[in-house]
Amino acid sequence: MGRITGLGGVFVKRADPDKTSAWYKDVLGIAGEYGPVFRWKDEPQDDPFSLLSSFAADTTYLDPGTQPFMINFRVDDLDSFQKELEDKGVEILGRADEPYGKFAWLLDPDGVKIELWEQIGPAPDA
Fold first, then answer.
1. Which of 49, 73, 93, 112 registers the highest number of CB atoms within 10 A of its CB?
2. CATH architecture under which domain 17-119 falls
3. What are residue 21's phi and psi, to 5 degrees?
4. What global pTM score does this model have?
5. Which segments of the chain are extended strands (E)?
6. In angstroms, rounded to a whole number, what is the distance separating the alpha carbons of residues 29 and 26?
7. In the chain, what is the greatest distance between 2 CA atoms, to the nearest angstrom?
8. Average pLDDT of the chain?
9. For residues 117 and 103, is the Cβ–Cβ distance under 8 A?
10. What is the 3-state composition of the chain as percent helix, strand, coil, each rounded to the nearest 5?
């Protein structure tokens, strides 16, 4: 029997897809013909993983984003990447260091909250 093996992509409606794609390329450094492509074989972490997580409708975790979802991007060195973003004038909304990773948050031009995550340690048991 077949089974799901991972997240294949995130697809988002945008008012101006070309403008948003240019921002993701210029600010975050990610691009591709149909959107950024992330190959697991390029991941430096020993046990990388993705997460599909649901929140209650009244959560404030996605605030101040204006969309009902958030995008979490993996980064290999959050400290240096955050500095690069700040040098480009990007406002970092907050920062947290947890036992399982380092986090920082920002908004894209369409009000989507972006969470940057540097994984620390192995994936949790499924």
1. 112
2. Roll (3.10)
3. -60, -40
4. 0.85
5. 70-74, 94-98, 101-107, 113-119
6. 6
7. 50
8. 89
9. yes
10. 20, 20, 60
In this structure, the number of other CB atoms found within 10 A of the CB of residue 24 comes to 19
For residue 28, what are the CA distances in angstroms to 2, 16, 31, 74, 107?
A: 35, 17, 9, 12, 12
Query: Are residues 66 and 111 in contact, defined by beta-carbon separation less than 8 angstroms?
Result: yes
Structure tokens at 106: 């920002």
Given a cut of 70, whether residue 126 has pLDDT beyond it is no
Distance CA 61, CA 72 (A): 13
Tokens 């991941």, located at residue: 43
pLDDT in tens, 51-61: 888 999 999 99
Q: Mean pLDDT, to the nearest integer, of 78-89?
A: 95
Q: d(Cα 30, Cα 68) in Å, to the nearest integer?
A: 23
